[in-house]
Amino acid sequence: xxxxxxxxxxxxxxxxxxxxxxxxxxxxxxxxxxxxxxxxxxxxxxxxxxxxxxxxxxxxxxxxxxxxxxxxxxxxxxxxxxxxxxxxxxxxxxxxxxxxxxxxxxxxxxxxxxxxxxxxxxxxxxxxxxxxxxxxxxxxxxxxxxxxxxxxxxxxxxxxxxxxxxxxxxxxxxxxxxxxxxxxxxxxxxxxxxx
Amino acid sequence: xxxxxxxxxxxxxxxxxxxxxxxxxxxxxxxxxxxxxxxxxxxxxxxxxxxxxxxxxxxxxxxxxxxxxxxxxxxxxxxxxxxxxxxxxxxxxxxxxxxxxxxxxxxxxxxxxxxxxxxxxxxxxxxxxxxxxxxxxxxxxxxxxxxxxxxxxxxxxxxxxxxxxxxxxxxxxxxxxxxxxxxxxxxxxxxxxxxxxxxxxxxxxxxxxxxxxxxxxxxxxxxxxxxxxxxxxxxxxxxxxxxxxxxxxxxxxxxxxxxxxxxxxxxxxxxxxxxxxxxxxxxxxxxxxxxxxxxxxxxxxxxxxxxxxxxxxxxxxxxxxxxxxxxxxxxxxxxxxxxxxxxxxxxxxxxxxxxxxxxxxxxxxxxxxxxxxxxxxxxxxxxxxxxxxxxxxxxxxxxxxxxxxxxxxxxxxxxxxxxxxxxxxxxxxxxxxxxxxxxxxxxxxxxxxxxxxxxxxxxxxxxxxx
Lengths: 195, 466
What we know:
heterodimer, A: 195 residues, 7 strands, globular, B: 466 residues, alpha/beta, 5-stranded parallel β-sheet
């Protein structure tokens, strides 16, 4: 897994709550054997019109969204299915961090295993960020995972929570499977005791 | 100290616990299907790893399998490639596979319990969020991502932080034509789609005790729609009777020992939960969703909300967006709204009891000519059972399509789908935008309500059919 230390980017604002993984990537695109190449299918049914052209009113299609590595999303982002294709598609498009007031459990876990950082902020901070991004869509946000800190254009800073182990893994690019494999002896003992 | 059902199952599966680290949790049963497993096997190959306990993983094909009778050719080359890959992976790594057409094949969350693989007190995972279904047996069962599928294949373990517990106490007797589906839709309408985030639910109370296993699975299945990864029900005689004699259930002395263990699983008197929600079963009515998430539901006789009913601006915006997508009028009841398609099926409501409910309504009646009705059994076993009971004739005589098992129109990956703008009353679990086909609009409801809509071609209160 790629490590995550710091990130500096403008953010694209997706102002909808309860965005489910069927919106992030519709099920018909799950018939793939690969993790890569899903960026084009991200938010497919919102992003493209019936004739296949870009929907100009969709956030990711606006000129200022180009190059954004941060998604500023609404509450309960990533609810619904367990498809890891959702973080794969977000990363395929170029997103490295998602900011929201809350994330669905499975989605959050999937992000952390792929080097995509879920940043949880309170409602007041979220409202301020939305205002800042609306006022200047190109204004940059800085993320320091080490400091668990988000800084935006006017110098305002906010701390965000993250599980200490997840932080450690992201900072060092540690793959969780390698970590579990290091418990081989304990697993063997458990199996011997439990059959 | 008094422990909850969840705490007992959790504790029995902790392999290692270190400070400030998630626990290493042992997984008893791992279920896989064609859609969320290929990248996990690819990962094993890249790392040169084997499957640690191949006998603890069981595979089925369900998400993209066709359901047209006697025509099981997969016409979609991508779906075919995925199905072939599953076959190759299972054969290479020594995993049992219930392939398409096999007598034991069906939807993953139907097959596990049906074969007796799902047992009380187990930890069960699958790369599918509706794995919560298996919690109906008093197991800790939850959906995982593909990275975690790889972790379980390689180590039979997962890293997990201990979730909080929420007791959902449902007391009283359900009214006429009120089902397990109505219980769970009412709960989600009450707590919202994020109400259970971070929690494992335990459903308790007299209304839950009175449900059969199929109905308990319906309730636990949709725990994830309330944000909870897992929902559990304490095992009791109903559970033991269901498991006894099934193909992979213990027998003889092993059964006696298992039973002794299982009987100790229910939460101890005085055990405490982090949160509690109460539902009065006697006050429940048949439920239906109107919006684009499962929390947007109302009793079928009730008018839809109006934007002005929502005090939080973001909730109001979400409601208005949903009403535009669904093309519905605020403040009006859904009763009488036209329906184009009825779908009876999915891991929520495709079991024999569900089919009996739908058939009970359809018997001797005809489906409205304007409605396309699909009945998709959850497995070949259920299909056989339904045919032995003559339910297939009831469906076919009424004008419904009787299909081969699979996920079908719940996830619309196999060609069974809505066309843009169509309205469906569906017994499945998700009404997200486009879930049942791009541009399609879903009303979630019970098999009874779905069957009633098939007959009239409109959203109908089954209690008024007579």
